[in-house]
Fold each of these.
Amino acid sequence: MFIRTFCCSLFLTIGTAAADPLPSWNDTDAKTRIIAFVDSVTDAGASTYVTPADRIAVFDNDGTLWGEQPVYFQFIFAMDRLADMAAENPAILTSDVLKAAAAGDLKTVAAAGEEGLLEVVTVTHSGLSVDAFEAEVSAWLETARHPTSGRAYDDMVYQPMLELLSYLRDKDFDTYIVSGGGVHFMRAFAEDVYGIPPEQVIGSAGKTSYQVVDGVPTVLKDPGIAFIDDKEGKPVAIDSKIGKRPIFVGGNSDGDFAMLEWATAGDGPRFGMIIHHTDAEREVAYDRESHIGKLVRGLDEGPGRGWLIVDMADDWSRIWP
Amino acid sequence: MFIRTFCCSLFLTIGTAAADPLPSWNDTDAKTRIIAFVDSVTDAGASTYVTPADRIAVFDNDGTLWGEQPVYFQFIFAMDRLADMAAENPAILTSDVLKAAAAGDLKTVAAAGEEGLLEVVTVTHSGLSVDAFEAEVSAWLETARHPTSGRAYDDMVYQPMLELLSYLRDKDFDTYIVSGGGVHFMRAFAEDVYGIPPEQVIGSAGKTSYQVVDGVPTVLKDPGIAFIDDKEGKPVAIDSKIGKRPIFVGGNSDGDFAMLEWATAGDGPRFGMIIHHTDAEREVAYDRESHIGKLVRGLDEGPGRGWLIVDMADDWSRIWP
């Protein structure tokens, strides 16, 4: 085993020693701190060394790995899907909220609050198998385009974060998503886009059930919410599904505060990171007053807790792939 | 990458080619079928080849990986813990069921049905942090002994199954537990005993919450059930937490039927396996009439579905480590 490990390490070292692991990060303090942390936990001779099995890194998705403005992309999917469903069968639009959503009238849907949102999600995210739902998401990603950038949604991922994910995995970290987004929605693209396999995608979830449908064993998406993976739900989900306290954690809003707080309070070296959307020119600038991705406590308390606040405008040389 | 992979494969091959991977399995049809299946999905040139990422194997725990008679070991833990708690503070025994459980009177507890069981579990499995709970389980395993065998409970694991788990992992399978047992209870020993890390332990779960307790960020075990990982709940949990349909699945009771049915209905090669407790001499013989681990449908329909029924008495040369 020693010879095998040594041999693998040798090839790895030769293959990557020269390259900058984070080429889309400027040479600012952010990049220095990330690399210093990773070095500290992977140096087998250091007191800060962390065994590969405990190198757990978790990341929020919306606003951390991909965009979230002007509204969560999953909700745009829901409205698009509702419009498609209504074109087939207009009778499904049984309320003003559903009619507004199918017409793309975000304002009316937003005015209906959480209940309105849930109604749209229920109609578009239940009554089909998990497999069929994921196929719907994949098909949507092929054709849907973001209203302002014109890009495919799965092309609106942050290049510096893709590099960070790869860098961590090269250093034997397991990289997880821990997001308020739906688990089945995210699994439709997480492996292709982020290199994160289904078993490392943790998210909010609707209820599901197992049934044999016309002789075919099937997991079905049902109406109703099983779990909201946001705020205090994030440490709960990480404990439930991973069972280890991450040593590296990245988010962008106060919905990630509890996860950052819990992870960075563990023993040994810990790295907390908040993506601050400061770049109105290349992306969108928002924080304290935003209706999505609101960030107040993280900005106020994060630096004092030792968390890195990433300034997108200053720290990233490039935003998109 | 190719050179590295090739080099690793070379060392692996040299290291393991000669050894029997399942020495505690007799040379019966069961062993032949298991090895033939594993060969078929790992032969890169075969049409039955399965990529390592999809080599997901799931196993029930109670009665499949370790014993479950005369009663689920976790319930013995609950009764022992209740007795310890009552020795400190007798006032916690607020009902007849709790008094009976603390006195080790299984008959009275059993007569109180599911409600009685839940009462005992609630008192003994909530009101403390996940970390503290897992420490309690570890401490219990150190000293508690099985009523008939006199063995430590974590020494009542099936040696042939330990070998099967190792064999599958050597062949790049991910091995998961998917059990009706509690996830935090099982994590206290799954890595040491089975080599299965926390993130690959799926089980039933009590409610948990995230709170900052006296300044310490903590995940707490609360009263109430969050999820029962049994029967139709097993495919639901596998979909929720792994997001892939396993290709190898092992169980021992009708609580595993849905999981076996769903997994083996997937495309491509699939292996379903039921451990049949036939060995009254070395373990316990039970199936159709048992109050625990009842097995009827699996025996009736399993062979017709191509599932392997493992006959413990005939197929295993050795039961315990």
Note: Residues 136 and 305 of chain A are 42 Å apart (CA to CA).
Amino acid sequence: MNDKKQDAQLLSEDWWHTKIIDMQPGVIRYSGYPIQDLIGRVSFAQMIWLMLRGELPSRAQSDLLDAALMSGVDHGPQAPSIAIARMAATCGVGLNNAMASAVNVLGDVHGGAGEQAVELYLAVAARIDAGKAEALAVKEALADYVHEHGKFVSGFGHRFHPVDPRAPRLLELVDAAAASGVVNGRFAQIARAVEAELAVGRSKPIPMNIDGATAVVYAELGFPAPLARGLFCLSRSVGILAHAWEQTQQGGRNKGPIPRQFIPTYDGVPPRSVPLQEGEN
Amino acid sequence: MNDKKQDAQLLSEDWWHTKIIDMQPGVIRYSGYPIQDLIGRVSFAQMIWLMLRGELPSRAQSDLLDAALMSGVDHGPQAPSIAIARMAATCGVGLNNAMASAVNVLGDVHGGAGEQAVELYLAVAARIDAGKAEALAVKEALADYVHEHGKFVSGFGHRFHPVDPRAPRLLELVDAAAASGVVNGRFAQIARAVEAELAVGRSKPIPMNIDGATAVVYAELGFPAPLARGLFCLSRSVGILAHAWEQTQQGGRNKGPIPRQFIPTYDGVPPRSVPLQEGEN
Amino acid sequence: MNDKKQDAQLLSEDWWHTKIIDMQPGVIRYSGYPIQDLIGRVSFAQMIWLMLRGELPSRAQSDLLDAALMSGVDHGPQAPSIAIARMAATCGVGLNNAMASAVNVLGDVHGGAGEQAVELYLAVAARIDAGKAEALAVKEALADYVHEHGKFVSGFGHRFHPVDPRAPRLLELVDAAAASGVVNGRFAQIARAVEAELAVGRSKPIPMNIDGATAVVYAELGFPAPLARGLFCLSRSVGILAHAWEQTQQGGRNKGPIPRQFIPTYDGVPPRSVPLQEGEN
Amino acid sequence: MNDKKQDAQLLSEDWWHTKIIDMQPGVIRYSGYPIQDLIGRVSFAQMIWLMLRGELPSRAQSDLLDAALMSGVDHGPQAPSIAIARMAATCGVGLNNAMASAVNVLGDVHGGAGEQAVELYLAVAARIDAGKAEALAVKEALADYVHEHGKFVSGFGHRFHPVDPRAPRLLELVDAAAASGVVNGRFAQIARAVEAELAVGRSKPIPMNIDGATAVVYAELGFPAPLARGLFCLSRSVGILAHAWEQTQQGGRNKGPIPRQFIPTYDGVPPRSVPLQEGEN
């Protein structure tokens, strides 16, 4: 390599650097592990963990991660993300584009619930670590949460399901993992304490939903809160792809949200004439 | 600048280069024109032309471009792009994100009609230039088009409007520009010949629509076909922004395509039990 | 229409409604104005105003809007949005997709400066309206701003330009519009007061940049703060399209950020062996 | 439910329908399987299969899918998708948005190689099924491929790796699966025959790369070609997320492709004055 290239190399190295992947011609290593030694020995979920954490998980840890990832793949075309994927598939774009338009809307409201729930659990845990009783810690953290985010507590309650069938099953898995020492179990307990507190004074409880339950898994496994959103995006990408693909096979061109013959209501200014513009007469 | 930086500069210059913009500290020029001399003297439409073509248009040319851009801004929430923008706005993402998810679906089917119509007009023109009579040139180009794209000819016919009110008005402007020598007028004539040919043997004509008409404008002004799609994206971005903003003001959280109480039909496999997995017993 | 369709129509009307566009077969009206009466009489910038505000602007108002829109179209491939558009164009996606990936990143940091500057000006104005002296109002609003957003005040200072050549020219136009009564001029004054306050105690001033100047225009014209971001997205979409198109013509496949021979630095864990996985021996 | 709602329900059912997911309050089933019976019993890879195919795979089948998914997660920040994710993360958008801008560019050139390789293998297989000898079938299918796509054959050769370390390892897994009857093995053979044919008359072979090898896996497992792209998008989303997250932790604001002090080359029109515009004097 001549001097010019060497210098440019040094400068580009300053600009782009990573601990994730190491590449040389013929060599690919992730966090130091050669790819050919990983293939066939670690699962997709283990690889996801390695990429995000820099270390390989135990099989028991990755089984929990696996369960959280597989349980959030889809909640049907009523969800904006899935509807977007399906509509995009009728517009003459690729599957990658349909996936992008859909994943893009997994924002604070549609994809951020898991992240917000992890933050809530961590806030409770921090108060307990500071010496407060669990009940008080929960009350205070919830009050802070509602002050910042409003009355809907992410991870609890569902507009459609009286009880979200995914949540209790995921909690069972966390309990089993805690019983065998894979995880600590403290975030499962905190989440249940939040659920109990939310039920106080109500005729109907506000049970934990999929986001509250996957947040327990992610918190137990030590993922930072923003990655709860990231992991949900990976998980929901599966449903997004599946629905885009199903729609592709169903066909359709420029499929909109409602059948073509039903037009949206116009509730604006009645018909009027364009006033004379300057220079017209 | 020391040698090392100089060399890296040279290399990065090889990698990223442009005829569009020239920047030095305190200096910004587009195709050679200093920005401070353009501001207040050329319109947004003129600037769009400059950025895409490298030269400033005459006022008469930019007036035509202006008309094509302003006439395509919106066709309501029935269009997937607009529905996507509105749904995105309820998901907790920014206006830029809502715009991105929506512009993204302006693909071959939803945003490519203008591009395809320009290609068709150019194909007719090429045949005429090769010495064929207009009627034959139109017949042959249409046959090729249908062979490649199917029976729906982009730019003609509308699922909702018997006559698209935007098309005849745009053609009037092109005719006036042709009469005063601003444009040649040949693509307006070709488009009308296509329209006439499509009507042969039908009880109802298949009149030119907005895409067919803006394609006439873009072809007359000398834009290459792919930019007809690019310009449509700029134009429709306005409606996308307006609807995302209106939806933001209307509020809503995770608004889906149909009201929540109406669930999509499931027409798949009936309920069944998960079979024993390997290792289970 | 039979009863079933009528009822569904009523329900879909409840779900999708808009004041922007009114459509019937053969009829399209924006805020009540028939499209065929707008075409050829109002410019793209006037149409943008109509779509976002529901009323047509005067020519003098739209001239100011035009200037703000045309002045922000591009700042070269060093900006992430433009680099993304160019790289996308080498990946085998459409211009609409390249535009989407790029517009998408005009987030709080890359596209939100205008919005934040409008908010700052409005915060100063509110304090003045509440009876405070301008100097105090500026000091207080800036202190609040820095508390919330950090020490970089959006709209002021530039990493590349000692003086951004776009800002003083835009302010001239605002001053002229204020002199002729088109706008009030108060936000130009507030912005200059902010600029003066930021210079206090510094050897070099922190002059207003393009975002600070377009924010003055948008605030003078009465646009709410979030639309400053939306309008910037429309404006920058022009540069995004132009660069994607230029890159398309330059060619290239999978063009990355730096030349292929320069690989990013790996600064992570050294090479290591994959440990025995459970079940292996 | 009253008549009006019932009718609207019927109509919305006509418009949105799916075989993927069945939802009732408290009930979620995928292809008939209740979610609570799947959680903890099937892996993420098995769930991906179920969502795309409608049936659960055997463990051996999902192990192969797992290997293909985990082997394609990342090829470093030199790839446009990863660079885009990292740059996006510095622009003030969410992880979901960074992922979307990046996944979006996995188009024909950057993400379509697996799909194109599956198509090629299927074209060879179809010719063999029609009675042609393998060697001839390969020659003909390759000739057709080059005619349509150009001289670079997707799935073979690499600009950086003399031998892609992922490909031979994946083929080993396919061979093992074929030996035990999990898959047929015909596409592994076809891919090797393609590799051999490409080497004819060259001093250096053009060895199979990751896309050629995952295409073998997907073809062996019976996935249609477009899903090879979809599955790659799921796989690469992991690297995209990991790099966006790493960049978030590294910090940076509006990080562009090259260091700020190195500006792209301007190779366009030299500085010039804006000509008098109409109405100016």
Note: Chain D touches chain B through 57 residues (CB under 8 Å).
